[in-house]
Amino acid sequence: MNKDAAIIKNSWNEWSETWYQRYRGDDAISKIIKAPASAFHHKTFSMIQHALQNLQDKRICVPSSGDNHAVFAFHLLGAQVTSCDISEKQMENSSYIARKHGWNIEFICDDTMSLSKINSNEYDFVYTSNGVHVWINDLKAMYTNIHRILKPSGSYIMFDIHPFLRPFGIKAAKDIKAVKPYDSTGPFGDVPTFKWRMQDILNAMMSSGLCINHMEEMYAEDGSFWVDDSKEDVDAMTQQELDELSNWKSNTLAALPQWLSIQATK
Questions:
Q1: pTM of the model
Q2: Is the pLDDT of residue 229 over 70?
Q3: What fold is seen in the domain 3-163+190-222+260-265?
Q4: Is 40 helix (H, G, I), strand (E, B) or coil?
Q5: What is the pLDDT of residue 170?
């Protein structure tokens, strides 16, 4: 494991026990149980349905599974799911939730750039959710191994922050002010993150052998997207204030797409 990956792994083990706890609270998990599709942007979920049609008994792998909301949702929708993440604590905390609810989900601690514990040609579908690409320092390695573990004709779908937002940050702005050039990709910070461009993501996919079938550029579902990552900050705002953040006339950055989903096949 390289130095960057080790720093990221140690940081996520710490965060899993502190501020990330709210993602596995009873309210968050109950919402997924009640409506599994709520774990996905509605356009991304439509892409998933089009790619798989029937999720029942499909083998699905979710690398860099993070909060495991997508993992839980896929299981509740009838799939056989493998959750992979570089953080042991994320795996431990998520497997506890699965055991608590009697969910038969496979949890494997593994690096998305190698997936060394995953056999080739095993999965009907691979999904990566919001916040994966920012932690990846070798996109080609990630996509090569996603291609490897897919069955022939298997599908992959990604959902993540749209690269067009990376130069500005993800906060409301009355006047647009760039915080970095679009082609400055990182690493950034003491815990290294990477701000990939469209060409980086698409070229890595295609060089792996994946065939790109469809792409959607989406807008956030509500104004909370533009608020600092804290439930308390969102709760302190009125609905009118949140609505204003989704209005591109008052928040210029809202004129850009906030989310990106791409579907590809092996």
A1: 0.86
A2: no
A3: Rossmann fold (3.40.50)
A4: coil
A5: 62
